[in-house]
Amino acid sequence: MLWSDPPDEPPEELREVQQKLRRMGYVLATAIMVGTLVLLVR
């Protein structure tokens, strides 16, 4: 990589979208686990 190359960091907007997707993934995984527990307990 040359010193004149632009940095590899994604733009601010893309980072925000990635954070939102990561949060949605955690929420979805938690919801699936809770739903599975509810179905198993019934």
From TrEMBL:
Transmembrane feature ranges: 24-41
Keyword Transmembrane tagged: yes
Top-rank taxon, per record: Bacteria
Entry keyword set: Membrane, Transmembrane, Transmembrane helix
InterPro entries: MmpB-like
A Pfam family that the UniProt record links to this protein: MmpB
NCBIfam families found in the cross-reference section: morpho_MmpB
Identification of the protein by name: Uncharacterized protein
Species for this entry: Streptomyces lunalinharesii
